[in-house]
């Protein structure tokens, strides 16, 4: 049997956001593979979010011969492995404990992220994406989705103030500012389908996904000169690409002249009124 040292893919994490991936009312998940590829060519997660290993995780990388590599859509973690003539069997060069956890800080790069992301943000709570339920969270805890799961990130991933404080307390002082969320992966999670290694310590190479949805708002058109305002009957999606056509006869609470044109809103002008989000467009 030959014996060599090389690196193998331990796991991968992909981040998607429908504000960047949808095109007007065309939803990314429903696009053809060619159209999806076109949208992904223009997509980079670092345009809106930063995902970095904690200092403690950096130390684990060093001790267990792991390598962190960023990608356009997230990151991959590699580990030094034993290379043998058995292609199915992939063992880490250094045995990894099943209860070892890797933690990654999630911070926001774009000050408009809250405007175009369909989440409610709480002052003393953070989002947790993990394959292990914290002890103070309910049994309804939402686990981190896999790449093939048809799941969008919702407020269900926002953990309690108590759990949020516990998670923040484990960070170094320099890491505690502006934390939006934490990605925490344990080598064997609560569910075997989300394990990174099996009971024999062999790599399973799972692919996880964090998929944000774009916010949908009521569109309010304000005519300052005439001191009038009209708004759409239903919410419309906010997207960076494409265009949402407005039908003056059917889209407004009060039908408007067919000759009028209605631009799509910017993500800069958003207000919240009685629990509903409005995009304001001045015409």
Question: What would you say this structure looks like, in words?
Answer:
The chain contains five helices and 14 strands. With 283 residues, the protein is of the alpha+beta class. It folds into two domains: 4-212, no CATH class; 216-282, no CATH class. The longest helix is centred in the N-terminal third of the chain and has 9 residues, at 33-41. The model has no long low-confidence stretch (mean pLDDT 93). The chain starts with a strand and ends with a strand. It has helices at 18-21, 33-41, 55-63, 113-116, 161-169; strands at residues 4-17, 49-53, 66-71, 74-83, 91-92, 101-108, 127-130, 181-186, 207-212, 216-223, 228-231, 236-237, 270-273, 276-282. β3 (66-71) and β4 form a beta hairpin.
Largest sheet: 5 strands, mixed
Residues in β-strands, percent = 25-35%
**If helices are DSSP runs of H or I spanning 4 or more residues, what is the number of helices?**
5
Coarse structural class: alpha+beta
Task: List the domain count as a whole number.
Answer: 2
Instruction: Give the rounded overall mean pLDDT.
Output: 93
SSE order: EHHEHEEEEHEHEEEEEEE
Number of strands: 14
Helix content: 10-25%
Distance between the termini: 75 Å
Q: Which regions are unreliable across 5 or more consecutive residues at pLDDT < 50?
A: none
Morphology: elongated
What's the alpha carbon Rg, rounded to whole Å?
Answer: 23 Å
Quaternary structure of the protein: single chain
């Amino acid at each position: 049997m030959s014996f060599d040292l090389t690196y193998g893919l331990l796991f991968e994490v992909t981040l998607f956001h429908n504000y960047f991936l949808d095109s007007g009312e065309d939803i990314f998940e429903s696009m053809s593979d060619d159209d999806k590829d076109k949208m992904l060519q223009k997509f980079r997660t670092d345009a809106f979010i930063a995902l970095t290993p904690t200092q403690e995780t950096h130390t684990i990388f060093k001790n267990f011969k792991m390598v962190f590599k960023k990608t356009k859509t997230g990151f991959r973690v590699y580990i030094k492995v034993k290379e043998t003539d058995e292609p199915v069997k992939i063992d880490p060069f250094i045995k990894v404990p099943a209860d070892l956890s890797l933690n990654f800080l999630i911070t926001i790069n774009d000050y408009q992220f809250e405007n175009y992301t369909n989440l409610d943000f709480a002052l003393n709570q953070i989002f947790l994406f993990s394959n292990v339920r914290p002890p103070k969270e309910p049994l309804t805890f939402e686990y981190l989705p896999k790449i093939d799961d048809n799941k969008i990130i919702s407020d269900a991933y926002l953990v309690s103030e108590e759990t949020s404080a516990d998670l923040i307390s484990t960070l170094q002082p320099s890491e505690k500012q502006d934390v939006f969320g934490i990605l925490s992966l344990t080598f064997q999670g609560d569910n075997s389908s989300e394990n990174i290694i099996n009971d024999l310590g062999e790599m399973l190479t799972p692919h996880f996904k964090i998929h944000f949805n774009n916010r949908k708002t009521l569109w309010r058109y304000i005519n300052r000169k005439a001191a009038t305002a009209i708004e759409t009957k239903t919410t419309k999606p906010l997207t960076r690409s494409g265009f949402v056509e407005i039908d003056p006869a059917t889209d407004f609470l009060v039908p408007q002249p067919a000759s009028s044109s209605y631009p799509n809103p910017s993500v800069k002008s958003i207000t919240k009124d009685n629990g509903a989000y409005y995009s304001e467009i001045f015409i």
